[in-house]
TrEMBL record, chains A, B:
GO terms for molecular function: kinase activity. This is cAMP-binding domain of CRP or a regulatory subunit of cAMP-dependent protein kinases. InterPro entries: cNMP-bd_dom, cNMP-bd_dom_sf, RmlC-like_jellyroll. It comes from Chitinophaga arvensicola. The keyword Kinase applies. Residues 19-96 form the Cyclic nucleotide-binding domain.
Length: 189, 189
C-alpha cells in the first residue's frame, strides 16, 4: 500500500480507535489497494458483493435505476468515505444498487470476512466499525427525513454542507439525481 | 427487572453475541425497566436525548411533523426492536423526531453512557451493538430506496413483511403515515 493511502486510513481510524503501530500495520495488511478509471463499474446490480471500499482519492457514486429507468443517487463517496451495497454485503444477497466512478479513483478494498476477522481479533477495530456504522445510520435516517419532508431547497443545502467540494467535482445532472429532482428544478435553486 | 423481560433481552443478545451468565447479569443491571401508557410521549422534538429503548411488549412509533403539519412515521417498534432519536443521541443534539406509545408498553431503557461503558468493558457487547446498527443501517437504506422508487404498493408489501403483526395492531391512518400516502390511497391497496 502506498504511504499516502496508509496515512489517510490511519488518520481516519485514529479519530475513533487507539491502535499501536504493529496493530495498525496488521489491520492495513487486510486492505487491498485498487485503481479505477472514470466511468468504471465496481458493483453492478445482481452481483454478489464481497467487499466494502474506503476511498483514498476521486469520487464514486452508488445509484439505482427505478422501474421507469430513472436514476437515483444514494450516495457520493470521496476521500475517507466508505461505500458498498451494504444490504448485499451483510445479508449475502445480490446487489440492488450500482457503484461506479465519477472520476479516476484510488480505493482500499476490504472483504467481508477480513472485516469480521479484524473485529474479532482487535476490540478497538470492532469499536471503530461500530461507530463508522452508527454515523452511516444517522446519515441514512437524516436523508430519509429530508425525503419525507420533501423540501428540495433544504435537501440541496444539506448536500452542499455534507459534500462542500462536490459542486465543482461532478456534473449538475448527478446532483439533481441525488436530490431526486429534474435538472431544471436544480437550476432554479 | 422482571424475569420475562430479562429472558427476551437475553434471547435477543444471544443471537449475535456469546456471554456467560455473570456477564449477562452485569449487562442487564444497566437496563432500567419502564412502563408507558397508550399515547404517552417518550421523546418530544427539542428534547435532549440520553437513552435508547428496547421494547419488551407493546408498540411505539417514532415520527415527525413536517412544515405543512403532516405526520410521517419513521419507524414502528414492537417486541425486540430498538428505538430512539439516534441522531440526537449520538451527536448530543436536540431531538428532531418524536417517540410515543401506540399501545401500553413495557420497555428497557439504556443510557448513552452505559452503552459505551458496556461496549468498552465487554468485547461481545461491542460486537452485538455493531451488528444491531448494521441491521438498522441496511433497513434505513432499503426504506430510502423504496421512497425513491416511489412504488406505494411495493412499500406496503415490504411493511407487512417487516411487521406482520402490525396490520391488526395499529390504526390504518398510522400505516398510511408510514407509507407517506393518504388514508384513501391505502384503502385502494
Amino acid at each position: 500500500m502506498a504511504i499516502a493511502a496508509k496515512d489517510i486510513l490511519k488518520a481516519h481510524i485514529e479519530k475513533t480507535a487507539v491502535l499501536n503501530e504493529a496493530e495498525f500495520d496488521y489491520v492495513c495488511s487486510h486492505f487491498k489497494p485498487q485503481s479505477f478509471k472514470k466511468g468504471q463499474a465496481i458493483i453492478t446490480e445482481g452481483d454478489l458483493v464481497d467487499n466494502e471500499y474506503f476511498v483514498i482519492s476521486g469520487c464514486l457514486k452508488s445509484f439505482f435505476i427505478n422501474d421507469d429507468l430513472k436514476m437515483f443517487i444514494l450516495q457520493f463517496a470521496m476521500s475517507t468515505w466508505w461505500v458498498s451495497d451494504y444490504n448485499a454485503l451483510y445479508n449475502r444477497t445480490k446487489a440492488t444498487v450500482n457503484l461506479d466512478c465519477i472520476t479516476d479513483a484510488e480505493i482500499l478494498c476490504l472483504s467481508n470476512s477480513d472485516r469480521e476477522k479484524l473485529c474479532k481479533e482487535l476490540h478497538p477495530i470492532e469499536h471503530f466499525f461500530r461507530w463508522r456504522t452508527n454515523k452511516g445510520y444517522v446519515a441514512a435516517q437524516k436523508r430519509l427525513l429530508s425525503f419525507m419532508n420533501n423540501n428540495v431547497k433544504e435537501r440541496y443545502e444539506e448536500l452542499l454542507k455534507l459534500y462542500p467540494e462536490l459542486y465543482n467535482m461532478v456534473p449538475k445532472k448527478l446532483i439533481a439525481a441525488y436530490l431526486g429532482v429534474s435538472r431544471e428544478t436544480l437550476s432554479r435553486l
